[in-house]
Design a protein that fits this description.
Chain A: It is found in: Cell membrane. Chain A: This is ABC transporter permease. Chain A: InterPro entries: MetI-like, MetI-like_sf. Chain A: It is a multi-pass membrane protein. The complex is a heterodimer of chains A (about 325) and B (about 260). Chain A has about 325 residues and is mainly alpha-helical. Chain A contains 13 helices and no strands. The longest helix of chain A has about 40 residues. The N terminus of chain A is likely disordered. With about 260 residues, chain B is an all-alpha fold. In chain B, helix 3 runs antiparallel to helix 8. The longest helix of chain B has about 35 residues. Chain B is globular. Chain B starts with a helix and ends with a helix. The chains are: A mainly alpha (about 325), B mainly alpha (about 260). Chains A and B meet through helix 2, helix 3, helix 4, helix 5 and helix 7 of A and helix 1, helix 3, helix 4, helix 5 and helix 6 of B.
C-alpha cells in the first residue's frame, strides 16, 4: 500500500508503526503524485475527445425530429423510439457484420499463425531475415489500404486472372463472379486485418522457449500433439490479443463491403452508419446505431475476456 | 513422409501467407507503370510517365502532403502522451489507476466508425470547423492507446535494478531517467511511433468522419475510386511502400552489422 492510498485516520498509526523514515515516506508519496502528473495530460485528452464524445453520441441518439423541421434539424429529447426503429430496421445487418468479422478473424488466425511461427520460431537467430519479414508485415500500411482493397477488386474482377482461371477449371460457373459477393468482402477483411493478428502472435511466440517443444518430442508426443498441448496453450495470450485486434475493427469496417461487395446482401453496419450520417443526415439514427455497435462489441469482448482472458494481456 | 510434412508445413504455409500479403502491392506496383490515361483499370502499355510526373494528376500530391503532416503531428503528440502514460501506469501506484487503465483500453475496443461518429458529434456540438486540427485530434486518440500498449510492454520488461544502480551511484532522478531509463525504452518508443505513423497515414474511416473538406491520401483514393484512381496514386503508394521498406531494412542491416562487430570482439 502506498502512502497516498492511506486513509487519513490511519496516518498517525502508520507514523508509529512504519519503520521507514519520514523522508522515505515523502519520497514514496511524491512518487505517487508523479505518476498522476505523468498520465494527466493524456487522460485529459482522452476525457475530452473520447469519453465526452461518447456521451454526446448517446445524447444525440435520443434527439427527436421537430414536427415540420428541415432535414438535419433535431431537438434534444429522450426519444428511445430511435433505438427501436433502427434495431428493427437493421438487426440483420448487425448480424451479418458480426458473422463476416468472425469468419475473417478465424481465417486471419489460420493464415497469420504460421506466419508468426515462421518468423518467431523457425527463423530464430537469423535476425536479418526476421527483421525483413517483420517489416513486410507493417510496410503494406504505407501503400494505403484502400489502394490495396481496390487492387483486390481488380484482381478478383470478372476480367481478372483469378476468375478466368477458376472458370477455366470449372470451379466457378462460366457466369460466376467473385467481386460483389460475401466471399470477396470476407477475403478483403481477412487481408486488411492480417497484420493485427500476426504481430501480437509474433510478439508472444518470440518469447516461446523451444526447449519445451523438444521436451515434448522427447516424451514421445507427436508433432501434432506438441502443437495442441504445448505451443498453442503457450501462445494463447498472443492469439487472444490478435483475435480482438482483428475482430473489433473488422466488425465496424465498411470500406471492404463498399468496394468489394454489392450493396444489397453484403452491407455491413459501418456502411449504414456512414450513409445515415452523411447521405440521409439522420444524426439520431446514426448515433443510435453507433452506440448499439459499441455496446454489442464491448459485451462480446467482455464475454470473451471472461472466458479466455489471460492476465498477461494489456 | 510425415517428417517432411512436419518440417515444411510451417515454412510453406507462412511463405504463402507472405505472398498473399504482397500480391496486391505487386499489383499496385505493376499498374503504376500503366499508360492508363484516366482510369487505371486495364493494362494499356508500359510507361515511365507516371513515375516521372507523380504529381501529374490533380490533388494527388496535395493529399499526400496533408497525410504526411497529419501523420507526423499526430504521431509526435500520441507518442509523447502515450509514453508518459505507460511510464506512469507501470511505475507508480496511485488512485484512479484502474479508471485510467480502462480509459486507455476502451478506444482499442471501439470500432473506428464509432470513434469517428462520436468525435463528429462532439465537434458538431462544440461548433468546431472540421479540418486539420480535428483530424489530428481524432488520430491522436486511437494512436495513443496503441503507443501505451506497446511502450508499456517495454517498461514492464525493464530491470528496475538498473535504475536503482544509477541512483546508488548518485545520479539525480532526472539524470537516471535520461541516461538509463530512456535509452532502454527507446526501441519500444520508436516501434510505437512507427506503428502510430503507419496507422495515421493509412486511416480512412475516422478521417472521413472528421475531415470536412480536408483531403488525405486515403480519402483521395476512396473518393476517386468511383471515377477511376489515377496511376499516380499507384506511384505514390508503391513509393511509400518501398521507402518504408528501405528505411527499416537499412536500419536493420546497420544494427545487424553492429551486433556482428560486437560479437566478434
Amino acid at each position: 500500500m502506498t502512502a497516498t492510498a492511506t486513509r487519513r485516520g490511519d496516518k498517525k498509526k502508520q507514523k508509529l508503526e512504519d519503520p521507514r523514515s519520514t523522508e522515505e515516506i515523502s519520497a514514496e508519496r511524491r512518487k505517487g503524485r508523479m505518476g498522476l502528473y505523468l498520465i494527466l495530460p493524456g487522460m485529459i485528452v482522452l476525457a475530452l475527445f473520447f469519453a465526452a464524445p461518447v456521451l454526446v453520441l448517446l445524447s444525440m441518439s435520443l434527439n427527436a425530429k421537430p414536427p415540420g423541421g428541415e432535414i438535419g434539424e433535431f431537438v434534444p429529447a429522450l426519444e428511445f423510439g430511435n433505438y427501436v426503429t433502427v434495431i428493427s430496421a437493421y438487426w440483420d445487418v448487425f448480424l451479418r457484420s458480426f458473422i463476416f468479422a468472425l469468419i475473417a478473424t478465424v481465417a486471419a488466425l489460420v493464415i497469420g499463425f504460421p506466419m508468426a511461427y515462421l518468423v518467431a520460431v523457425r527463423l530464430r537467430g537469423r535476425q536479418l531475415l526476421q527483421g525483413i519479414l517483420l517489416v513486410l508485415l507493417i510496410a503494406p500500411f504505407f501503400s494505403s489500404f484502400i489502394l490495396r482493397t481496390q487492387a483486390w477488386k481488380q484482381i478478383l474482377s470478372d476480367e481478372g486472372p483469378v476468375v478466368t482461371v477458376l472458370r477455366a477449371i470449372a470451379i466457378l460457373p462460366a457466369d460466376g463472379h467473385l467481386t460483389a459477393t460475401a466471399f470477396a468482402v470476407v477475403c478483403g477483411l481477412t487481408y486488411n486485418f492480417l497484420p493485427f493478428m500476426t504481430l501480437p502472435i509474433y510478439a508472444n511466440l518470440d518469447r516461446l522457449d523451444t526447449n519445451l517443444l523438444e521436451a515434448s518430442g522427447d516424451l514421445y508426443a507427436s508433432p501434432l500433439t506438441t502443437f495442441f498441448k504445448v505451443t498453442l496453450p503457450l501462445s494463447a495470450p498472443g492469439i487472444f490479443a490478435g483475435t480482438l485486434l482483428t475482430f473489433i475493427p473488422a466488425a465496424g469496417d465498411y470500406v471492404n463491403a463498399a468496394l468489394l461487395g454489392n450493396n444489397r446482401d453484403t452491407a455491413m453496419i459501418g456502411q449504414v452508419i456512414d450513409s445515415r450520417f452523411f447521405k440521409i443526415v439522420d444524426y439520431p439514427g446514426a448515433s443510435a446505431l453507433s452506440f448499439i455497435l459499441m455496446i454489442l462489441i464491448l459485451a462480446l469482448v467482455l464475454i470473451y475476456i471472461k472466458r479466455f482472458g489471460t492476465k498477461e494481456l494489456f | 513422409m510425415k517428417r517432411v510434412i512436419g518440417r515444411w508445413l510451417i515454412p510453406v504455409a507462412g511463405g504463402l501467407a507472405f505472398v498473399y500479403l504482397l500480391v496486391p502491392i505487386a499489383y499496385i506496383f505493376v499498374f503504376s507503370f500503366n499508360d492508363a490515361g484516366r482510369t487505371n483499370l486495364e493494362w494499356r502499355g508500359f510507361t515511365l510517365n507516371n513515375w516521372q510526373n507523380p504529381c501529374g494528376a490533380p490533388n494527388v500530391c496535395e493529399s499526400l502532403v496533408n497525410s504526411l503532416q497529419v501523420g507526423v503531428v499526430a504521431t509526435v503528440i500520441a507518442t509523447v502522451l502515450g509514453t508518459c502514460i505507460a511510464l506512469g501506469l507501470v511505475r507508480y501506484k496511485f488512485k484512479f489507476r484502474n479508471t485510467a487503465d480502462l480509459l486507455i483500453i476502451l478506444p482499442l475496443a471501439t470500432p473506428e466508425v464509432v470513434l469517428g461518429a462520436s468525435l463528429l458529434a462532439q465537434f458538431l456540438n462544440l461548433g468546431w470547423e472540421l479540418g486539420f486540427t480535428t483530424i489530428v485530434i481524432s488520430h491522436v486518440i486511437f494512436c495513443m492507446s496503441f503507443v501505451v500498449v506497446t511502450v508499456r510492454a517495454r517498461v514492464s520488461s525493464l530491470d528496475p535494478r538498473l535504475e536503482e544502480a544509477a541512483s546508488d551511484l548518485y545520479a539525480s532522478p532526472l539524470a537516471t531517467f535520461w541516461k538509463v531509463t530512456f535509452p532502454l525504452l527507446l526501441p519500444g518508443v520508436v516501434a510505437a511511433a512507427l506503428l502510430s505513423f503507419a496507422m495515421s497515414f493509412d486511416d480512412f474511416i475516422i478521417t472521413n468522419f472528421n475531415s470536412g473538406n480536408f483531403s488525405t491520401f486515403p480519402k483521395f483514393i476512396y473518393v476517386s475510386a468511383t471515377r477511376g484512381i489515377p496511376a499516380q496514386a499507384n506511384v505514390i503508394g508503391s513509393a511509400m511502400f518501398l521507402l518504408a521498406l528501405a528505411v527499416v531494412i537499412t536500419s536493420q542491416v546497420i544494427a545487424y552489422r553492429r551486433r556482428k562487430v560486437l560479437a566478434a570482439r
